[in-house]
Amino acid sequence: MTNRSNEPFHDPIVTPDELDGLPEKFFDRFVFNFHRTDGSRPSIIVGLGLHPLRDTVDGFAQLSTDTEQRNARYSTELSATSWDTCGPFSYEVVEPNTTWRLKLADNPTGLTFDLTWHARTPAWWGDIDVTNPKGETTSFAHLFQSGYADGTVTIDGEEQRVEQWYSQRDRSRGVRTMQGGQGLHIWYQAQFPDRSVGFLLVEGRDGSRLLLEGAVMHTDGRLDEITDVKHDLVFDDQLDLKSGLVQVTTASGDVLPIETDASGGGGLMAGAGYGGHHGEALGVDHVEGETWPLDGSVTQRTVDSSLTDRLASFTLDGVDGSGIFEFALTRSSSYSYVPTLV
Hints:
Elements: E1 2-3, E2 27-35, E3 43-51, E4 56-64, E5 68-77, E6 85-86, E7 89-95, E8 99-104, E9 111-119, E10 124-131, E11 137-155, E12 158-175, E13 182-192, E14 195-204, E15 209-218, E16 223-235, E17 241-250, E18 255-261, E19 286-293, E20 308-316, E21 319-329
Antiparallel strand pairs: 1-10, 2-3, 2-12, 3-4, 4-5, 5-19, 6-7, 7-8, 8-9, 9-11, 10-11, 11-12, 13-14, 13-21, 14-15, 15-16, 16-17, 17-18, 18-20, 20-21
C-alpha cells in the first residue's frame, strides 16, 4: 500500500476519451452508504462500476430495514447509455472530492432518492499492488471518506427528509483480481461526531496479515495513519458478526478501543452482485432484484458471497457512533477465526 493522501484523488469517473492503454479488466467504481447518525435503520447502500473495455456498466441499490433486505441490481452496455447513468441510477460529480449528487428512480426495492453528498473529513487514499497466488497482479487506487447526505428518501411511496445523515464513500479504479487464501476481510468505517475511523484489513487463513490501510480522518482536517489493528470479534455459526472489540493504533500514538454492536442484521452484499458478478455482460437495460427476510433463513452460508456491509453501532471512550462494519469470513473448512486482541 502506497499512501498518497497528501495528493488530490482523481475523483471524476473515467470518460470515453481516457480509454487508450487501459487493461481489459480495468474498472472504475464507487459505493456510497447512508444512515442516520444514531445508527437506526434504514441502511441504504448504492454503487456503480464502469468496465469500459467490456462495454459494461453495472450497479446496485440495497435497502435494509429492521425486518428485511431489499436488493436491486442493474446493468447495461456503456455504448447504449450516457456514462453517468445505469438503469434507474444516475450521478454527478459536482465538485471532486467534495460534493456528489446521486439519484435513484423506480426499481425493485421500492426505494428512490435524490441525495447530495458533502465531505465532512479529508479522504484517505493510496495505491494497492498485490501479486496473487496465480501470478495475476492486483493494482488499483483505493479511497474512502466520510461525509454527510442531504435531500429526500422515499420508501414505498413515503417520502422523508434527509438532513446530515452519515455517509461513507469508497472509490476504486484499476485492476482488482485478489483471489484465494483470505481468511478474514474487514472494511471498517466507524463514524463519530469529530472523526471517522476507517481501514481495510485482510488476513490470510493462517492468520497472517495480507493488507492493512487506513487512517483516522478528523473533521478538523487531520489524517492520522492507522499502523495496527487488533480484534476480538463474536461470530455465530453462520459466519455472521454479532459484536466485538477492535483496537486501532495510529501513527501519532493514539490507541482507540472501539466496541461494536453489529446484531441488527442485513447488508448481505451477495444481493449487490459481490459474488463475482460485477462486469458481467447482461445486455441492455437489465434489472433484477429480490427481498430477503431477516429471520435467519438467508445467511452468509446460503448466498454466493459471505461479504456483509452491516450498519453497526460503535462506542469509543463513552462516545456513541455508527457506521458500516464490512466483514467476510472464508467458508473454507481450513479456517477458524482467531482473535488477535488478547
